[in-house]
Specification:
142 residues, alpha+beta, Alpha-D-Glucose-1,6-Bisphosphate, Chain A, domain 4, 7-stranded antiparallel beta sheet, globular
């Protein structure tokens, strides 16, 4: 079994519908994901993610279950063997949403695990950005 490269969970003070919007709307993604996203969130859709560090990634939507789960596969355009899958799962509890993101390397034939060339975990910063986006919305609505 391949262990996840990253697994992070964050509790957000927002309903799942709002968090889902932040995960799937390209304009919203730019505010917290630290990347420009050219992707329409529909099953099988393909697009590009341009990280602010200059890395361009291809992305494919594998699973889309509105307000519950979004699975993507992505890889750097210059390093397709470094593909990984990303799963976002949302669990709403009393108007708050528990969001878990798991990024797992793609396993190639022969059991070879493909690893991203990123040395650091990018999800901690990205989820902090998401938390700030939610807090900004909550603060603006009060």
């Amino acid at each position: 079994m391949v262990e996840p490269v990253v697994r992070r969970t964050v509790e957000l003070d927002a309903p799942a519908l709002e968090v889902w919007h932040l995960l799937t709307d390209p304009a919203e993604l730019r505010t917290w994901f630290a990347a420009d996203v050219d992707l329409v969130a529909t099953p099988g859709a393909t697009g590009l993610v341009l990280d602010h560090d200059g890395t361009t990634r291809h992305v494919v939507v594998d699973v889309l279950d509105a307000e519950h789960r979004l699975d993507l596969t992505w890889w750097p355009t210059d390093l397709p063997e470094a593909a990984s899958t990303i799963s976002f799962t949302l669990d709403e509890q009393g108007g708050r949403t528990l969001l878990t993101v798991t990024e797992t390397p793609v396993v190639r034939a022969g059991g070879m695990v493909c690893r991203s060339r990123e040395a650091a975990d990018p999800w901690t910063g990205r989820l902090l950005g998401l938390e700030l986006a939610v807090l900004t919305r909550v603060g603006a609505s009060t």
